[in-house]
């Protein structure tokens, strides 16, 4: 049997009117599905190595036995990133090096487009109608983060100030309820320096314990509005401060989106404006859930078996429905394999100052 005749292929290489790639035949594709909403489809062609190389170069004259060819002058070349949205190509040679398998891999939400039986075209990837057409994955995580804030910003102190404000207490103390915490802290500094309410030296200083009532005329300042329970809470906060407690821990959350895109993504074309829009501005939870919904495309086909929604959207809309989020500067990296990765973060806090930051 001549070396240019291969069992299982309808035409022998070198026959009259037969192109070199014409002896290439497509075999079964390999398909996997990921929970991030994408299919990974690898189409494979088997034939003589020389014929596979010709076939992978693209063009009508280098079609396989079924008439399939890769469009464009550059084609899909073995060992490199391909055109038509392919993220990987390979040429594996059998033992002896005469026969081989050429493969091209796509990541897509449209299974039918990736398994097209004719000339491959750009598969409809997730985000084709909204966002980056060559998005490969978009993963959302909600991380916990603990912050330390001033002791006088603790929830009990805020309750005290709210009670004073809601009761319409007199504001003869300079600053009223808004300046009360500063006045209390100043009084404790006076106590530490051995001074009483009037700036005089405290007699029996080492026998005298600090008390809020010793530094305020409660009958004529905002503290008159406090119930005995809240006044005791204020005294307890002050005692903790005198013992050296200056801060308390509060929960903060960081919402992170890590997007990976293919080499021919809009990111590679420096179309980064959407990622940098509204940086260092306050976003509402509804702004973020709208973005998440638009950024996450359902996979194809959207049957009850494979269709899904993002549970995180429900969590944000319920637990964090009144939160405000500060959108931080995104991080954009070019990965070693030619792909791009964009990381965006929103830092949650219910009391971001609208005087310091603009809203989205």
Brief rundown of the structure:
The chain is an alpha+beta fold. It contains 8 helices and 10 strands. The chain has 3 domains: 95 residues, no CATH class; 112 residues, no CATH class; 99 residues, no CATH class.
Question: How would you summarize the topology of this molecule?
Answer:
Layout: E1 25-34, E2 38-48, H1 49-56, E3 88-93, E4 99-108, H2 111-114, E5 135-150, H3 155-166, H4 180-192, H5 228-242, E6 247-261, H6 273-276, E7 282-284, H7 285-295, H8 311-319, E8 324-327, E9 331-334, E10 340-349
Antiparallel strand pairs: 1-2, 2-4, 3-4, 5-6, 6-10, 7-8, 8-10, 9-10
Helix pairs in contact: 3-5
The total tally of domains equals: 3
* Count of alpha and pi helical runs: 8
Series of secondary-structure elements, N-terminal to C-terminal: EEHEEHEHHHEHEHHEEE
Counting copies of identical and different chains, the oligomeric state is single chain
Coarse structural class: alpha+beta
Helix content: 10-25%
Could you give the distance between the termini? Answer: 73 Å
Report the C-alpha radius of gyration, rounded: 34 Å
The stretches of 5 or more residues where confidence is low (pLDDT under 50) are 1-17, 78-82, 121-131, 302-308
Task: Please outline the major beta sheet.
Answer: 6 strands, antiparallel
Overall spatial form: rod-shaped
Strand content: 15-25%
Please count the beta strands (DSSP E, at least 2 residues each).
Answer: 10
Mean pLDDT: 73
């Amino acid at each position: 049997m001549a070396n240019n005749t291969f069992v299982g292929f309808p035409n022998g290489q070198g026959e009259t009117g037969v192109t070199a790639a014409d002896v290439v035949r497509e075999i079964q594709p390999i398909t996997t599905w990921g929970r991030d909403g994408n299919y990974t489809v690898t189409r494979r062609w088997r034939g003589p190595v020389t014929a596979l190389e010709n076939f992978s170069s693209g063009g009508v004259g280098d079609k396989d036995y079924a008439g399939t060819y890769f469009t464009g002058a550059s084609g899909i070349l073995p060992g490199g990133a391909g055109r038509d949205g392919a993220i990987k190509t390979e040429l594996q040679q059998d033992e002896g090096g005469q026969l081989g398998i050429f493969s091209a891999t796509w990541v897509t939400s449209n299974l039918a487009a990736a398994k097209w039986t004719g000339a491959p075209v750009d598969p409809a990837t997730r985000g084709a109608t909204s966002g980056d057409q060559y998005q490969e994955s978009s993963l959302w995580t909600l991380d916990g983060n603990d912050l330390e804030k001033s002791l006088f910003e603790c929830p009990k102190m805020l309750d005290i100030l709210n009670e004073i404000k809601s009761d319409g207490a007199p504001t003869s103390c300079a600053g009223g309820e808004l300046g009360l915490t500063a006045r209390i802290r100043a009084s404790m500094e006076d106590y530490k320096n051995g001074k009483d309410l009037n700036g005089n030296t405290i007699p029996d200083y080492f026998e005298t314990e600090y008390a809020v009532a010793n530094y305020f005329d409660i009958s004529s300042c905002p503290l008159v509005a406090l119930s005995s329970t809240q006044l005791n809470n204020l005294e307890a906060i002050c005692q903790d401060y005198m013992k050296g407690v200056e801060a308390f821990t509060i929960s903060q959350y960081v919402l992170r989106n890590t997007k990976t895109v293919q080499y021919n993504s809009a990111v590679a074309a420096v179309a980064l404006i959407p990622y940098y829009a509204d940086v260092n501005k306050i976003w509402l939870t509804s702004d973020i859930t709208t973005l998440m919904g638009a950024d996450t495309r359902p996979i194809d086909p959207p049957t009850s078996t494979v269709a899904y929604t993002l549970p995180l959207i429900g969590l944000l809309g319920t637990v964090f429905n009144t939160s405000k989020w500060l959108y931080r500067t995104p991080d954009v990296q070019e990965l070693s394999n030619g792909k791009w990765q964009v990381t965006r973060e929103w830092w949650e806090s219910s009391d971001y100052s609208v005087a310091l930051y603009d809203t989205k």
